[in-house]
Write a structure and sequence with these properties.
seven-stranded mixed sheet, 19 strands, about 25% strand, alpha+beta, 2 domains
């Protein structure tokens, strides 16, 4: 069964330390401090799972659910070669070979002890298209969020700056993976995903645990007036998510029509100022608006653009950037 939903036409204050934990998987998979601080909610610690050179991040509350597996990849380890270093690229990019990416994906599943789950990625296009899956699709569907309650299916979204959001209804055993760039955030994709979970599978928002993985932070995500104006038109709270001359931009400020007043030659007027957008704060607002409890929202706090030693960032690295992957699924029941 496959359902598709299409559209008709304060900042977080997280603090956390990374801590040791005991792994219940094979001996080669172990959890240890990563040496990198990853802010989350209420002092809860994000786990760093290592398998060989691979390093996978896990949100604390999701990691404690026994029937669930999940993870946010990093660039560490893998079979791809980028800038002379081995890296875990999980997306089909122009610079990497398809068979190498598939090997990286198998390595990710192995690191999570999820070799018997079927990976279900999407062909993402910055939309608000959402799928409810009960079996692996023959081909990756074109959309930006997926939901399932079927064991053995590992939902996946790819990012290299956008916000990956994993959702789990611990009561009804429903999970979702969401890709939220600025366009998807503008279209309220995570709020709509929770709405689909409610409508199709009976989820109650208060039972949802939400984890937002590494994404570009407000410190680095500079956007133009068209983005600021679009958010201002859609969200009364938009001002809280921007740093810079937000009010000036949404007020319709434009180049001086009387150009001779600034003594600059035609075509040489100064550009409009730009602002910084905190996509994670915008999506946290949507999670709260949907009814997710504040204490059930967790964030890695890692900025992809600041941490290219650990993560991929298209904004910073350009076309040679790889792709991260966030995955979540229900383990198969043991017979």
């Amino acid at each position: 069964m496959l359902f598709c939903a299409r559209r008709n036409s304060g900042n977080p204050d997280y603090t956390v330390l990374v801590v040791n934990t005991t792994s219940a998987t094979a001996r080669k998979r172990r959890t240890r401090p990563s040496g990198r601080s990853a802010p989350g909610h209420s002092g809860a610690a994000w786990k760093s799972v290592h398998s060989g050179e691979l390093e996978i991040l896990q949100a604390p509350a999701l990691a404690n659910i026994p029937w669930l597996t999940h993870g946010f990849s990093t660039r560490m380890g893998g079979s791809s070669t980028l800038a002379g270093k081995k890296t875990l690229n999980l997306g089909f990019t122009g610079w990497d070979k398809r068979e190498t990416v598939l090997a990286n994906r198998r390595a990710l599943l192995s690191a999570l002890g999820a070799e018997n789950l079927q990976l279900a990625p999407l062909r993402q296009f910055h939309s608000d298209v959402i799928y409810v899956l009960d079996r692996p699709p023959q081909e990756p569907p074109r959309g930006d969020a997926s939901i399932t309650s079927a064991p053995g299916l590992l939902l996946a979204v790819q990012t290299a700056d956008c916000v990956p959001i994993l959702l789990a209804d611990a009561k009804r055993r429903v999970v979702a993976a969401v890709h939220a760039g600025w366009r998807g955030t503008l279209q309220r994709i995570v709020l709509k995903t929770i709405g689909r979970m409610q409508m199709v599978l009976g989820t109650r928002p208060k039972d949802i645990v939400a984890a937002t993985g590494p994404a570009i932070g407000g410190c680095c995500y500079e956007v133009g007036p068209e983005v600021a104006q679009a958010f201002a038109a859609q969200f009364a709270a938009a001002r809280d998510w921007f740093e810079g001359p937000f009010d000036r931009l949404i007020g319709g400020d434009s180049p001086n029509p009387l150009q001779w007043l600034n003594r600059m030659p035609p075509g040489h007027q100064p550009p409009l100022p730009r602002v910084h957008l905190d996509l994670r704060a915008a999506n946290r607002w949507q999670l709260l608006k949907a009814g997710v409890l504040p204490q059930n929202i967790f964030s890695s706090g890692l900025c992809t653009s600041c941490r290219t030693d650990l993560l991929f960032s298209f904004r910073r690295e350009g076309k040679i950037s790889g792709r991260l992957m966030a995955v979540i699924g229900l383990r198969r029941e043991e017979s």
